[in-house]
Amino acid sequence: MSDRKYIEATSAINGDLCDFSNRWTLDGDYLRCRFCNRAQITNYMDSPFPHAGSCKPTRVLEPQPWRTFLALTTELARLAAPQADGLGGKGGGNGVQ
Ligand SMILES: [Zn+2]
């Protein structure tokens, strides 16, 4: 993958991760709702998230946030993995902005 395509692909995931972090906080092996601060451990990733009864999110939240997080990080890992063409999955640069 060219550096440009890699940067474009990872930029899209970076945006999705930033959007995710507006809804959820990774707290060790828990994800916390940013609106009610309730948490869910990884073991229950396939269960609906246990929001507080008083949780009033300002936007629609996915019912299984661990699955969203897993999809985002899996795609990031796929992009970063070495490619079969020997060019490597990573773009140039050192990530410092
Ligand atoms: Zn909540």
Chain-wise SSE layout:
Blueprint: H1 3-21, E1 24-27, E2 30-33, E3 39-41, H2 65-80
Antiparallel strand pairs: 1-2, 2-3
Helix pairs in contact: 1-2
The structure holds zinc ion (ZN).
Zinc ion (ZN) is lined by residues 33, 35-36, 38, 51-52, 55.
If you average the pLDDT, what whole number results?
A: 87
Structural class: alpha+beta
* Percent helix: 25-40%
| Rg of Cα set | 16 Å
- Number-wise, the strands total 3
Question: Cα distance, first to last residue?
Answer: 22 Å
Runs in which pLDDT lies below 50 for 5 or more consecutive residues are: none
- Describe the largest sheet: 3 strands, antiparallel
Question: How many structurally independent domains?
Answer: 1
Count of runs of 4 or more consecutive helical residues: 2
| Coarse shape | elongated
Strand order of the largest sheet: 1-2-3
Bound molecules: zinc ion
**Topology pattern, helix = H, strand = E:** HEEEH
Strand content: 5-15%
Oligomer: single chain
Quick description:
The protein is of the alpha+beta class and 97 residues long. It is 36% helix and 11% strand.
How would you describe this structure to a colleague?
The chain is α+β, with helices and mostly antiparallel strands. The chain has one domain. 36% of the residues lie in helices and 11% in strands. Helix 1 (3-21) runs antiparallel to helix 2. The relative contact order is 0.19. The model has no long low-confidence stretch (mean pLDDT 87). Zinc ion (ZN) is lined by residues 33, 35-36, 38, 51-52, 55.
